[in-house]
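S1.2 Input.
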Amino acid sequence: MQKKYFVTGIDTEVGKTLVATILTEALQADYQKVVQAGLEERDINFVKKYLSNSKTVIHPECVCLKNPLSPHAAAEMEQLNITLSQLEVAATENHLIMEGAGGLMVPINYQETLLDWLKLQKDVEVIVVSKNYLGSINHSLMTLEILKQNHIPVKGIIFNGTITPASEKVIQEISKTEYLGRILPEEKITKEVILKYAEYFKKVL
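S1.3 Output.
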């Protein structure tokens, strides 16, 4: 049975692309970045660099914008208007890992957010990436509550970074979200590191 997961974060820079790479390797899935804002550090290049399997197909971004800003603002600078219909899920018979830009409520234009797009994807489960910082409990619980209120299925939560038991426990207890695992701080990301975590996550996906 084909699995489709959408990886979102509770904020920017919480490790979405790292987690998406690990999950892609774990399932030898295809990968798709839905919206890329900023061309200097394209997420597909990170994924390509650290994957080891030969089965994964990395699909082009649905929308690729030059500036590392909120998609609506980056698009406006290029005199573009992003629509939901442009964000087409890649056609594949393989498992698929999709990654957003920023969090759930990132606007793609002045009326719609990534959440609006996600509401239309009836066969996609969400995996939430959380990382400890001041305010991360609030951001995690709000993200999970928004998903719940919109009846969007959540596969679970992955914690990235330093272990913070009190924060992680309260997020799980209040949200009733399944804990999928964690990514510990690593001195350097290598293919071997990705493979190490992939071996674990293939058991829980």
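S1.4 Remarks. The CA atoms of residues 98 and 125 lie 10 Å apart.
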